[in-house]
Design goal:
The chain folds into two domains: 122 residues, no CATH class; 112 residues, no CATH class. It contains two helices and 25 strands.
């Protein structure tokens, strides 16, 4: 365990000797998570609970040096037993407890791989990662740089990616997806939401969207193979839809888009 120090009435700070390539797993209900650069292994927990000391003490932070794995669990349901009452009073207690969940900030080392499980918390990664997996019911995901696989599954939330080197898999019911700089494969399945991707290297792009526009921008010079359709939306492309365009002798960008009612636009960067 790291050494615990109180820096404020509603905060708890711990430090662990995380090494490069650490595995980090965070489980919350509604707390937000930030991944930052800094002294690797520093974990800061904050809450707005009426009894912050008790609430923060319930959070489990455990580091296994043998596997270089850090797990953080805000234990949102811990302590909610029969002493909380029955029926409506118990329900109010659970809702209030979740509303005052714990926010988590972790200073990550180089090459960290992160897994987040949350009901409604947001994730912001300001530090470069080697991989990310997110499962949530509702919550936004914003990343600066990932040099590895990204997997996101959410019912409602926006996905905003900066530079990604590696495959990206995203499944959403409602929420926009934006990939600013993609070098690798991309698979997006969405019911409602805009999908925008800027492609800078060869790879396979597969987008399925029921309702929402799709815009794909491909760097000039890249070979492109297109398979783009929309049932009731408009399709426009600066690249021939019935063939390939680009420099010969290179691996292509294979672009497949299926949309029911959204417009599809393909263009050169």
């Amino acid at each position: 365990m790291g050494e615990l120090s109180e820096v404020a009435p509603a905060a708890r700070v711990e430090h662990f000797d995380l090494r490069e390539g650490a595995e980090i797993e965070v489980t919350t209900a509604s707390g937000d998570v930030r991944l930052v650069e800094g002294e690797a292994g520093t974990v800061r927990l904050t809450t707005t609970d009426a009894d912050p000391a008790t609430r923060l003490e319930r959070v489990e932070c455990a580091y296994d040096a043998a596997t270089n794995r850090l797990s953080i669990d805000t234990k949102v349901m811990k302590g909610l037993g029969t002493d909380k009452g029955k029926g409506l009073r118990a329900l109010k207690g659970i809702i209030g407890y979740a509303r005052n969940d714990v926010d988590v900030v972790v200073a990550v080392p180089r090459g960290a791989r992160v897994r987040l499980r949350t009901a409604s918390g947001d994730l912001v990664a300001e530090a470069a990662l080697a991989g990310l997996e997110v499962a949530s019911a509702s919550g936004d995901v914003r990343l600066t740089r990932v040099e590895g696989p990204v997997k996101v599954q959410t019912a409602s939330g926006e996905l905003d990616l900066g530079h990604v080197v590696g495959p990206v898999t995203a499944k959403l019911v409602s929420g926009d997806v934006r990939v600013e700089g993609l070098e690798g494969d991309l698979s997006v399945q969405s019911v409602s939401g805009r999908v925008t991707a800027s492609v800078g290297a060869p790879g396979r792009i597969d987008v399925g969207n029921v309702s929402g526009d799709v815009t794909v921008e491909v760097r000039a010079g890249l070979l492109v193979e297109l398979d783009v359709r929309s049932v009731s939306g408009q399709v426009s492309s600066q690249i021939a839809l019935d063939g390939a365009a680009g420099e010969a002798g290179e691996r292509p960008v294979t672009l497949k888009v299926r949309s029911v009612s959204g417009d599809v636009q393909v263009r050169r960067a």
